[in-house]
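Thread: Modeling a multi-component assembly for a lab meeting

Hi all, long-time lurker, first post. My supervisor asked me to bring a structural picture of a complex we are working on to next week's group meeting, and I have zero experience with this. I have the sequence lines for every component (226 residues in total). Could someone generate the structure of the whole assembly? Inputs are pasted exactly as I received them:
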Amino acid sequence: GAGVSQSPSNKVTEKGKDVELRCDPISGHTALYWYRQSLGQGLEFLIYFQGNSAPDKSGLPSDRFSAERTGGSVSTLTIQRTQQEDSAVYLCASNRDSRNYGYTFGSGTRLTVV
Amino acid sequence: GENVEQHPSTLSVQEGDSAVIKCTYSDSASNYFPWYKQELGKRPQLIIDIRSNVGEKKDQRIAVTLNKTAKHFSLHITETQPEDSAVYFCAASSGNTGKLIFGQGTTLQVKP
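Re: Modeling a multi-component assembly
Sure thing. I ran the full set together rather than chain by chain. Output:
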């Protein structure tokens, strides 16, 4: 596609429920990153995928968070048993590859846990 | 791992004045330093970047300088305009993964 597409744009969920957030990167981009931005805060790295390599999961805040990338394209971030502190904007970005080109971010998913 | 500190957290200037935002990083192996602008409710967008083999880069009213020895880099905006008002984030790459570690952001307000 022309840009990084994320869905849904907004998600309200009850505490304890599981949620799935989707990211469709720019066609041909092999690197994909997930970040979390809490209200008024910076961008917190969560996880990184590069081609067929094992993902870098070093930023995932707990084992309730997981992500996968199928077929080297679409990625899904799953949060299990959501907590109120999970409320944030989840941003996905893609890159041509890992050689330090500027990311292109999606518009994000605003997650609200009530 | 990499750590990026950004200052100031807020900055208010008069239209036409210059604005400077500074960042320091911890990992001497970092070699790529982009700056992103995020307008309210929108996605971060890349505005300028610099690689470790150069000390300065300019693009119209914006410039970035890099001091590898001191491990700091700065964003300079000249002749500021109200539409420059936004949150600005610096970042540094971590190794060769392309993974960016971001500073905490600077809210820039340009008063007309």
